[in-house]
Amino acid sequence: MVTELKRCLKLHEIVIYGVGLILGAGIYVLIGSAAGMAGNMLWLSFLLAAGVASFTAVSYAELSALFPEAAAEYVYARSAFRWRGLAWIIGFVAIIIGFTTASAVAVGFARYLALFVPLDKTLLAAGLIGAMTLVNFWGIKESARFNALATSIEVGGLLLLIVVGGYFIIRGHIPLANLTALPPLTSPEAFAWLPVVSAGALIFFAYMGFEDIANIAEEAQNPSQTLPKAFLYSLLISTVIYVLVAIVVVSVVPFSELAASDQPLSLVMGVLVGGTAPEWIAVVALFATANTVLITLIVCARMMYGMAKSSSLPVSLAKVHSLRKTPYVSVILAGLISIGFLLFKEIEILASISDVGIFLLFLVVNLSNIVLRYRRADLNRPWRGPLNVGRMPLLSLLGAVSCVLMLLSINHPVHIGEVQFSSLLLGLVIFSAAVPLYYLLDRSR
Length: 445
Hints:
The protein is built from 17 helices and four strands. The chain is globular, with a radius of gyration of 21 Å. The protein is 68% helix and 3% strand. It has one domain: Amino acid/polyamine transporter I, CATH 1.20.1740.10.
């Protein structure tokens, strides 16, 4: 039985993977919701989220060079804390994040596709997940080719919006928004900057993707050198594009109108150009969201594959198709469970659940890097993060603290009947299921 993956991805292909996943649902769908919270200071929310992501990216870069393996977070936690239970729980959390992310982005895809195909949006989202599962099964190289095409289209759409919007702003046809105006308060007693932080916590979903670079380590050429560079390049490219788009959209369309739209970037292009421009941006959004779903499913399946290889999940999940050389059992299961999460329907709820998981995950990754600096100082580190005091990696410490603060800022409301509660609570309940499942699935083996 074949159990090894093929090392075929070069640096530029891995960077395209990272940029392609980052520039997905957040910028095309969640930017409207975030604008309603942060107002004209939307750009600052993007920078805030980028800062948190950059701290953690340094930890990932160092750890991925040290442990170039699939099931990355699982491997890091196991190596640092030497408690199998924690490592298993972290691996499981990463898998659930993959499911909720794929579902959230698929809902975003359905919102844009509904402009052309008048069908139930949940059905459209399920159809996308099914189609991308087939591409995932077909092969990593084929998936990379689709990713390269989709990334070129989605980045092209964002650059077009930046160029056209920037032209009108520079020529004075559209006034530049007051980018330092404080956002509307969510309640009379709220601090003025809290909506910006809350928007940053929500839109952190838009930065999810750079961490998944670590999970294709077993398919990367020279991973100890290419992975650290891929982390930083992907994040930098995406942040520049995000900030420029944020400035343009709040200048062209009032943030309240952006918040009310299911297709915010189509709305912006309609104001700028008119004609069929909104439909063209909708097509670009379809490529962007489909691309994100594909890569999320790829990484999620390989996370299950990596844990199954170490006997932490049923060994059947480690089966690799003899012809396609992909972990087909994990691929199919990832698609089916992601479809199940579509029952939550609202992209803001699904994104908030993903954010809860990702901040918990990033907290452990940053702590893992700190612990390994002290516990395994003898290890040869091919790449070492900057700004250290003795053995203490300051950026990893900042990453851990900022993850806690961002986690506490998640407050999107969830309604079940007459009861309203925070999406933070919902996310914590979902991810806490990892504890009993560990004793059921892993300890019983």
